[in-house]
UniProtKB/TrEMBL annotation:
The keyword Phosphoprotein applies. Residues 1-254 form the EAL domain. This is Diguanylate cyclase. Keywords: Phosphoprotein. It comes from Massilia violaceinigra. One of its GO terms (biological process) is phosphorelay signal transduction system. The chain holds residues 451 to 704 of 861 of the full protein.
Amino acid sequence: LDLELALRHALEHGEFLLYFQPKVNLRTGRISGAEALLRWNRPGYGLVFPVEFVPVMEETGLIVRVGAWVIDEACRQIAQWSASDVGDVRVAVNVSSRQFVEGDLEGEIRAAVSRHGIDPTLLELELTESALMSNAEHTIAVLGNLKQLGITIAIDDFGTGYSSLAYLKRFPIDKLKIDIAFVRDVTVNPDDAAIALAIIGMAHSLHMQVIAEGVETPAQLAYLRRHRCDEVQGFHFSRPLPAAEFGEMVMANV
Ligand code: G
Ligand code: G
Ligand code: MN
Ligand code: NA
């Protein structure tokens, strides 16, 4: 309860901020965008990570309002970078299941895109399988409208949720994000390798892109590149960074 109050206070007093972790295009070797990751600069505690507070926000429903703030803040940052020497950066935002089901995602995105005057193709959403599976008609309608706007739709933690592969055919999905659980041992565990390769092959056959998360070693990177994974993200390249540091990394990454 104390934590819930503190989180409401945090939203009203601007204690949340976004960090940005680079995504790298394996064909060009260049930074292709970033995942925005929520942080809480809690007075007296320092920087608090999502694992400590996102579950509470999910339980209390506060994630719906904080999620709207994340979208607005991501668009504000995209606009700031576009107007600077950093240039256009595609930013992926995590959307929780409750935010997708209970919130007005489409309305919030339209409002944020127009408020900050950004190109909507610079915005990407990372949705989990569970968010999409709760109401198929709602999912089809919302994703269809977002896609028309030019938003990229990615499935986060792919392969770890409860879902049906049929939804890949029914929903307008652009990208699958291979969960870290299959990436960690991809070069040493044949089962993980088989799953990762199956995801890459299926994604490409369905004309979707594929990104691997949690890439930490040169061996994982080489394996994923050899097997035509499109993008990678992970500590091998960079931890999540404050916006200013991410901008410098982009400018250095000619
Ligand atoms: O940043 P970190 O690696 O600690 O993130 C841990 C988890 O928190 C990830 O699963 C990530 O999806 C989730 N998370 C981070 N930022 C957000 C956010 O803005 N909204 C939601 N719903 N989840 C987030
Ligand atoms: O579930 P989601 O994909 O949103 O999770 C993102 C989380 O993964 C963040 O907490 C981020 O810090 C973490 N992360 C990013 N890269 C790596 C990595 O290379 N290794 C590990 N162990 N975690 C990572
Ligand atoms: Mn994510
Ligand atoms: Na993940």
